[in-house]
## 1
Amino acid sequence: MNIQETAYFLFGLTLVIILIVLIIFYYSKKRHKKLEEPKYTMLDDDE
């Protein structure tokens, strides 16, 4: 493998790792309540 192929592979691998980290962060259980709460407060009556 030459330097260009190695750089292309590392760039692609970096993008995949970033995508996986973002998915894990977004769907973590700690954030679940924070994401779901506004949905239910919209449906509650103000009165």
## 2
Amino acid sequence: MVMERLKQNRWLKMALYIVILSGVSYGFYFLLQYLTTYFDIPAEGFAPIAYLIVFGVTLVANAAIFVPVVFHISIMLWAIEQCNCNLILVVLVASVAGTLGEITGYYAGYLGKRIVLAESTPGYDRFVGWMQRYGPWGIFLVSLQPLTDIAGLLAGASKLPLWKFLLPCWPAKFIKYFVICYFGGEILNLLPPFPF
């Protein structure tokens, strides 16, 4: 009975966490849209630079360890919806930047497992089990997780060679960002327009 309650509370916290992060991300998207309109910035002319902005923000967001930075999602959606950037190119740029950003987590785990990762971290044993049992597929599965960027920490703490980590991490990031951008754009189309 107690275990069921704990699991139920964990799912409730995760659902609340997803709602909050989604709300912050969409709020930031609408802020970008408002600033573009307020300062009369032609978004179409901004498209070539938008790819660089997506790369830089996604790199920084993925390099942040233990900080849920979701602004890169807003930037990706803004580039696609407002600047008319190509969805596949935005996702490609973001996935490369996100994978490179994971190197920070990798080296944090590699150099300081005891400081960065505690075996008491929720889900630690499960993630480590996936990576040990499935190797690259485990990294792929962990990298697909929408809420955590723990794959780099685990791969570094396991002393896995960097290239063996980056190789399965990139396609997972690509798939994750494609799903987020595609369905995020569809959700934006369902929302009422922001009144400005």
## 3
Amino acid sequence: MQRTDQHYQQQRVGDVRHRDDLSPLGGVTSSSELFCDRRQLLKKFGMGLGAIATTYLLQRNAAAGIGSTGIPTGGVINPTHHLPTAKRVIYLFQAGGPSQLESWDYKPLLIERQGEPLPDSVRQGQRLTGMSGNQAVLPLVGSTFKFARHGGSGTWVSDVMPYMAKQVDRIAVIKSMYTEAINHDPAITFLQTGNQIAGRPSIGAWLHYGLGSDNDNLPTFVVLITKGKGGQPLYARLWGSGFLPARHQGVQFRSGKEPVLYLSNPPGVTRESRRKMLDRLQQLHALEQGRLHDPELSTRIEQFEMSYRMQSSVPEVADFSDEPQHVLDAYGADATRPGSFAANCILARRLAERGVKFIQLYHQGWDHHGNVPGGMKTQCQETDQPAAALLDDLQQRGLLEDTLVIWGGEFGRTNYSQGKLSADNYGRDHHPRCFSMWMAGGGIRGGVSYGETCEFGYNVVADGVHVRDFHATLMHTMGIDHQRFTAKFQGLDARLTGVEPCRVVREILL
């Protein structure tokens, strides 16, 4: 009930007049402040407490060095926890699990002991998948590809990747990645969301939520998938927003006349009429928002407005007609084939130039349970030259320094043959105990080979890097302390890196 009684108000004001010590501002300073009602008093008093609390937090953070070196953002982390070394990420995800033994992790012992059973002392009772767990023998098999040292760093690289072999002094190869997931779905979900169980926000969604957008006319988080590739399925939840607002989910760009579905106006609808429709729709949403206070209503109108702006920005960024021929040639013969890995690498660079913060490329087909030699050759022909050209392109445009580029899959492959082993053919099963990834740009120290696996290529023996360590390191380059970046979910402070101990791999940072 609203109190309007004059005697009541004067009585309360009289209390304040004689209790100047209650004022957080140091006392009543004017006669007009004496005549206030209870609401005004509480407002002044509350704002005073807020000022005191803010001053305390600023002083505490300054003493701890928190926030003193960050940069402003448009997200919930403002400023960043520390000075970022990367402004954006291009993640070349190789879905299916590329074999580290045919690419980055040279193991000559496997060639010497070709066909011998995997020693129990090496396996140590670790679980196998049902695809090779019932084999009577697990025969060791070395790579059919030759390895050689490259660059000033002397990094070992397989001859199936001649273009990336020339980039080794720009990249940090992590040979000691490991995960708990042994099957594709939980393993990919873990790499993309920090949890093997579906429903958590993806990396790009976390970054959008935390850091905001650098371009009002393009999505902050874009997904590109190589067209026409088979293999393990990819799900939209891999680039979803989970329990974060829906506006933070990734937007998939497709090849063809309509890169983003349902973006174009239907026949007979002009841009002007669409603008009028959105204006009226926004008014209706505002009325409903005033009644329900549902944040998803605000998200919906924001998405409508973004779609309207993207009608002009998306066709421009997807149009390669202004790309010089020598740039297209550098990416290889597939560069002009829409939806190819090469074309998506060019599109990723164009998106990065325009301020898109997280660009996720998926390339399927690395799940080689049989015919590893033929499968690896095909996959590397599609990806090796474009990936190397992307690094060159970014470098020449001054973008590599603050663009983090990542290459890798969800796990590795076994050092033994799945199925029949012949002189020139073999398969490899899933192997979570060790696999290889590389990172470049964005504060990464080039010419590094980090971590070590055993001589059999089965176990990590030095400097292991867990999936959570990888996530913590990625966040660090973007100016985020992974332990301080949380979002409320089911009453808990959830974060990308979870609750298990993890670390930033500082040894690969500049």
